[in-house]
Amino acid sequence: MSKRILVTGGAGFIGSSLVGALLQSGNHRVKALDNLSSGRLSNLYFWMDNPNFRFVQADLTKLSSITSAIDDCDTVIHLAANPIVKIGMENTKIDYDQNVLSTYNLLEAMRKSRNCKKMIFASTSTVYGESKIFPTPEDYGPLQPISIYGGTKLACEAIISGFSHMFDISCVTLRLANIVGQMNNHSIIHDFVIKLNNNPRILEILGDGMQTKSYLHIDDCISAMKLILNRIDDWKNETFNVGPGDTITVLDIAKIVIEELDLNEVTLNFVDRFDGRGWKGDVRRYWLDSAKLKSHGWMPKYDSKEAVRRACHEHYNLQLVRPE
What is the SS3 assignment for 246? Predict the structure, then answer.
């Protein structure tokens, strides 16, 4: 069924990948909204002449800029957010503005809209904090995030739930694992490649390297979002974990990147200032239980190791300046 979709954060890594997938299907009219603070318009250039696509540069922290953007849409896929978790150490307000305030403004605009009453919200695994159950299911609690980013994403989930029940807005929340793939310039893979570009003999690793997390390839992330979009009428207010079903350590990611870049004799330099974490607020271990979403027909193609290796193949291995 054809939908009129607004993708917030539509010029970012996940957003632009989703826009392309939706337009390739040929069934939907898609509008991408982005303030271009971290998203790039070049990510959308291929689609600019598509009659079913429109780009809107707007700031979700300003309610006045949202109302007209959603008037001709029936569904919002809300991806706009601060993409760098550790920036909360330097600017404690950015996560509030880009997550809480932006989500509230979007919901307020949807409350007043006659047509736009459905939302898919991209949340995060960091809402679980330091879980004691692995893999962690959606009903785990209490949820105690250890970063401002995770805390504000959890606040967004709560605000969405309130609006959903009071104003008949249907929402599906997706708690995402770390997403990797082409065009992602905020991932651990990208960071490792940049460091190896600067010095192919030494790789600095933040933490003790034993941080263990799930990494999902962008193709699997998009397939989950498309499944939810096609069945959004089945749910009023629902939450799904979206992860590959396994984990990988930071050390193993480093080894894969080094191998894919065909480097030898790389010294690993561990910078461990926060008891094994990469930074304050870094969750040392998470592993999402995605059985609930899989029961509705979703199945990822790649495990964490394959996702990391595929991301290297797709983009990053072309950037290396090899040592003489």
Answer: coil
pLDDT digits (tens, 9 = 90+) for 189-232: 989 988 998 999 999 999 999 999 999 999 999 999 999 999 99
Whether 323 is in a domain gets the answer no
Helix axes 304-314, 250-260, angle to 10 degrees: 40
Q: How far apart are CA 176 and CA 266, in angstroms?
A: 32
Write phi, then psi, for 77 (nearest 5 degrees). -110, 105
Query: Could you tell me if 121 and 173 are in contact, meaning their C-beta atoms sit under 8 angstroms apart?
Result: yes
Judge if 167 and 255 occupy the same domain.
no
Residue 139 has phi, psi (to 5 degrees) of -90, 15
CA dist 133 → 107, 140, 193, 250 (Å): 32, 8, 33, 21
pLDDT band at 319 (very low <50, low <70, confident <90, very high): very low
Which phi and psi angles does 165 have, rounded to 5°? -80, -30
144, part of any domain: yes
CATH number at residue 276: 3.90.25.10
H-run or E-run covering 205: strand 202-206
Residues 128 and 230 in one domain: yes
pLDDT at 315 over 70: no
Question: Number of structural domains, the chain?
Answer: 2
φ, ψ at 193 (rounded to 5°) = -65, -40
Reported pTM: 0.95
Radius of gyration of the chain (CA): 19
SS3 44: helix
Structure tokens at 190: 């990208």
State pLDDT tens for residues 142-187. Answer: 999 999 999 999 999 999 999 999 999 999 999 999 999 988 888 8
- Residue 324 falls within a domain, yes or no? no
Place of tokens 């480093």: 254
User: Range with the lowest mean pLDDT among 170-174, 245-249, 320-324?
Assistant: 320-324
Positions marked active-site: 149
Domain extent at residue 205 = 187-213+246-286+297-318
Note the Cα 65 to chain centre separation in Å.
23
The token duo for 117 is: 């009453």
